[in-house]
Amino acid sequence: MKKIIWIIGLIVVVVVIILISSKRGNREQKVKVEEIVGAGATFPYPFYDKIFNIYSKKTGVKINYQAIGSGGGIRQLLNKTVDFGATDAFMSDEEMKKAEKEIIHIPTCLGAVVVAYNLPGNPELKLTPEVIADIFLGKIKKWNDEKIKELNPDINLPDLNITVVRRSESSGTTFIFTDFLSKVSAEWKNKVGRGKVVKWPVGLGAKGNPGVAAMIKQTPGAIGYIEFTYASQNNIPFASIKNKSGNFIKPDIESISKAAAIELPPDTRISITNTESPDGYPISSFTWIIVYKEQNYNNREKEKAIELVKLLWWIIHEGQKYTKSLHYAPLPPNAVKTAEENIKSITYNGKSIMEELLQK
Length: 360
Prior knowledge:
Layout: H1 2-32, E1 36-40, H2 45-59, E2 63-67, H3 70-78, E3 84-87, H4 93-98, E4 103-117, E5 126-127, H5 129-136, H6 146-151, E6 163-167, H7 172-184, H8 186-191, E7 204-206, H9 208-218, E8 222-227, H10 228-233, E9 240-242, E10 248-249, H11 253-259, E11 284-292, H12 302-316, H13 333-344, E12 347-348, E13 351-352, H14 353-359
Parallel strand pairs: 1-2, 1-3, 5-9, 6-7, 6-8
Antiparallel strand pairs: 3-11, 4-8, 4-11, 9-10, 12-13
């Protein structure tokens, strides 16, 4: 009898252990598939949409990303309503001071802003920074203006009004474009300046890169600034632009990459528009994911912070192989190294999450 009781007791203990292990496994599975939420830039959205889908299928971790513009991404991270923000305009010192905790920038790829247009026959135009500034200042109003004709003597430019199209909301793409114009035109810098939102002298507003691309495509005589991918995917022609070295450069993966052939600061907050590189496209930029350095905030689970760090590490390594097919340039080696250091600095209760993962 004692032996039977002992056996029954052993069975009960085994069953209890199995049930506890099962519950732990369920909890771990629940954490593993928990949603990571991000919001921000439309500039890298085609890239993010692709790689987040691949990552979700690979790991079971769903990435919910809303392309609402860089300004929205920064605001939502500051309000702590997302796990990460995304921006093409690195946060200013003033914006950084608004955060209760330190925010770090992780570069994810390189893109370019192109000057796209809608003209009969889709000619391949050459434009200088000065002419682009004058168009967006409203000083050049016709496509057959002498300044444009002088740059394109072999093209029969139409007697057609220029319709400027620009972003209507807070936008990192706007920041990149106006940052470039502020470097090349003193008049633009003094009258308009750079920012995610500016007071435009002329033009029609549209929301997001998709909205601007659609308006350019449906408006004869239109000109606007959009991310390289959106122009390429929508078959919208765009100009070769004269860079600082005096070379007319058409944006492509190689010329965008060459624009970043510079030394990076540790926080990676740097503008590469109007690059010094002789072969670099002059309206190129990094785009960033922004996160809190210390991840233990708002009762945040450590497991979720771990999944976020895993995602960031994957993006700057394996995720880079998806850049070129989507018309983005991969991070150069120096940017990958700097991004690695920034990711390693992300902590939970002061301890590096990545260091813990690497030790396992």
